[in-house]
Specification:
Distance between the termini: 125 Å
Order of helices and strands: HHHHHHEEEEHEEHHHE
Strand content: 15-25%
Mean pLDDT: 75
CATH class of the largest domain: Mainly Beta
CATH superfamily of the largest domain: Electron Transport, Fmn-binding Protein, Chain A
Largest sheet: 7 strands, antiparallel
Oligomer: single chain
Number of helices: 10
Strand order of the largest sheet: 2-1-5-6-7-4-3
């Protein structure tokens, strides 16, 4: 910027010198004309109206004044641009110093405490123009501070996210056989129905007659999805099944945990024993189709016994 200003000033001085030379030549020419009475221009000047300078010196003076104004305006504008560039340079320098100060404070916070005393800022030498940091230097320092260290398993561990395995429902253990006596097995085979007792919240037990099928491990009881006993089993799966032979007086109370099977295909498959028990001689598929046509909301209550009481009425 300074070299451009100097070149502009030199050009203005050269132009001014040329203008002065032309003005001097025009003035000398006018003086000679006015002093020589035999010169043709003298006669013209004597016949011109009123006294005053000749046309040639007047034009030279106007041109000289114009050049001076242009030169002055150019120098003023160049000075303004130069001052603005100095302001921008100082602003950039101040911004670089502020960034360096922030980086120094962060570095001091990260460094471990030592026994050395902090440096007195008043004793430090003032920075010179050559040592003033620039914005580019500050950005370079910031990039150096952000350079990652060596890659180790410790640095990679936080970035590795191992997905958790999908949650699966616990598999229930298989049913435990009750080891019933032949008389108890015969009672369950003779009984055509049982009484199912389920819990009602805050009320007495809910008792309903029910068909059942015992396969040696679990009891299967047909029901409907909208029935009250099905709703109560969903709330509290602990149930009791009471079986009795009215002629012999033998009875059995079997308690256990119940589950509800609602899938249509599973209900049909596990109803096979019930269909053959209560509809002997009929086609199981046709009988099942008739039951579904009567009410399609068919479910199955499966009771896994864990406690039994057997006896005979007196």
């Amino acid at each position: 910027m300074e070299s451009e200003v100097r070149a502009l000033e030199a050009e203005a001085r050269a132009l001014e010198a040329e203008t002065n030379r032309e003005g001097a030549e025009a003035t000398n020419a006018g003086r000679l004309t006015t002093e020589s009475p035999t010169h043709p221009a003298a006669a013209l000047m004597t016949t011109s109206s009123g006294p005053g300078p000749t046309a040639a010196p007047a034009q030279a003076l106007q041109r000289r004044e114009f050049v001076r104004r242009v030169t002055t305006d150019a120098v003023v504008m160049a000075g303004r641009f130069y001052s603005l560039s100095r302001v921008i340079t100082r602003s950039a320098s101040a911004a670089g110093q502020a960034v360096m100060a922030d980086l120094d404070s962060i570095r001091r916070e990260q460094e471990p405490e030592s026994g050395t005393a902090p440096e007195d800022p008043s004793s430090a030498e003032p920075p010179t123009a050559a040592s003033e940091p620039t914005v580019a230097a500050a950005e370079q320092v910031g990039r150096e501070d952000e350079t990652p260290g060596p890659i180790t398993p410790a640095t990679l561990a936080p970035a590795i996210v191992v997905p958790a395995p999908p949650a699966t429902a616990p598999v229930p253990p298989p049913p435990v056989p009750l080891n019933l006596t032949p008389d108890q097995e015969a009672l369950l085979e003779r009984a055509r129905s049982a009484t199912l007792g389920v819990h009602r919240p805050g009320l007495s037990p809910h008792l309903t007659p029910a068909q059942f099928h015992w396969d040696g491990l679990v009891f299967r009881i047909p029901s409907l999805g909208w029935a009250a006993r099905t709703t109560n089993v969903r709330r509290e799966p602990r149930v009791t099944l009471f079986v009795e032979d009215a002629q012999s007086g033998e009875f059995g109370a079997i308690s256990g945990r119940a589950t509800i099977i609602e899938r249509r295909t599973s209900v049909r498959e596990q109803n096979e024993g019930l269909l053959r028990r209560y509809y002997p001689g009929a086609d199981p598929d046709a009988q099942w189709a008739a039951l579904v046509a009567e009410d399609p909301d068919r479910v199955l209550i499966v009771v896994e016994p864990d406690q039994t009481i057997w006896g005979r009425r007196a």
